[in-house]
Inverse folding.
């Protein structure tokens, strides 16, 4: 990875899933999704695309999947104390997702237990916060997408239980929508860098960072990647301002309900 990727990866946490399917006698199948650490009030979670969490939910409940395991990979940044990921029980851990193309929403959160949050914080992973998302300036003019393309990732684990995961960073150029087609406006950009990637599959949920070229020492996480249109080299993202507005509302409503019950 480049120094810039490593620096920005201090927010990045990948969701890796290995599964065994009925009648499949080969090594476990492997899947990994991009994500980042997020804080909502006093709650920590892994933010990713809604359709990723939807896919995980389907896998957990699929009758032909005999076993499924998950680890959160938090070793892409500067600090690396261990190669082992943080275990995450998909069958018992809480999560939510919103995935509605007409509304323009595509995000989900895997919520963390306290011991999982402590392990991730040992790798100096920095959470995205509400305050940071609200302070986004209007003059950002260069953007980068960080993620884990599927074509650089193993489809199965090795006999020793390992898998290959490759991180990529793409430069983006923001474009304005010709017309507003979704209830919540989406982040839209074209890929503005050379890449040999044939597909952006696997990049879903990856953070999109915004900079101003006159002050490159500051950056903002402006959106998470949702989908892309290959013919136009165009990507679509879900802005974090929408995400935080919804999550904060849910957090406040839950807090009121708990206070009322107590």
């Amino acid at each position: 990875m480049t120094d810039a990727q490593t620096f920005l990866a201090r927010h990045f946490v990948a969701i890796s899933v290995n599964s065994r399917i009925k009648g499949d006698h080969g090594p476990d199948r492997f899947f990994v999704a991009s994500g980042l650490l997020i804080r909502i009030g006093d709650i920590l979670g892994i933010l990713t695309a809604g359709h990723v969490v939807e896919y995980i939910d389907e896998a957990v409940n699929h009758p032909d999947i005999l076993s499924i395991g998950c680890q959160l990979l938090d070793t892409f940044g500067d600090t690396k104390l261990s190669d082992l990921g943080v275990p995450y029980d998909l069958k018992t851990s809480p999560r939510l997702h919103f995935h509605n193309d007409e509304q323009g929403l595509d995000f989900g959160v895997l919520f963390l237990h306290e011991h999982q949050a402590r392990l991730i914080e040992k790798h100096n992973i920095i959470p995205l916060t509400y305050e940071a998302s609200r302070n986004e300036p209007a003059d950002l003019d260069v953007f980068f997408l960080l993620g884990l393309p599927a074509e650089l990732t193993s489809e199965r684990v090795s006999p020793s239980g390992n898998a290959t995961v490759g991180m990529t960073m793409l430069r983006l150029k923001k474009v304005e929508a010709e017309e507003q087609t979704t209830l919540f406006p989406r982040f839209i950009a074209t890929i503005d860098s050379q890449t040999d990637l044939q597909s952006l599959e696997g990049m879903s949920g990856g953070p999109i960072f915004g900079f101003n070229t006159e002050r490159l020492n500051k950056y903002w996480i402006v959106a998470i990647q949702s989908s892309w249109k290959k013919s136009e080299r165009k990507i679509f993202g879900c802005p974090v301002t929408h995400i935080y507005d919804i999550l904060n509302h849910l957090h406040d409503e839950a807090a009121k309900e708990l206070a009322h019950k107590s």
The first strand starts at residue 14 and ends at 21.
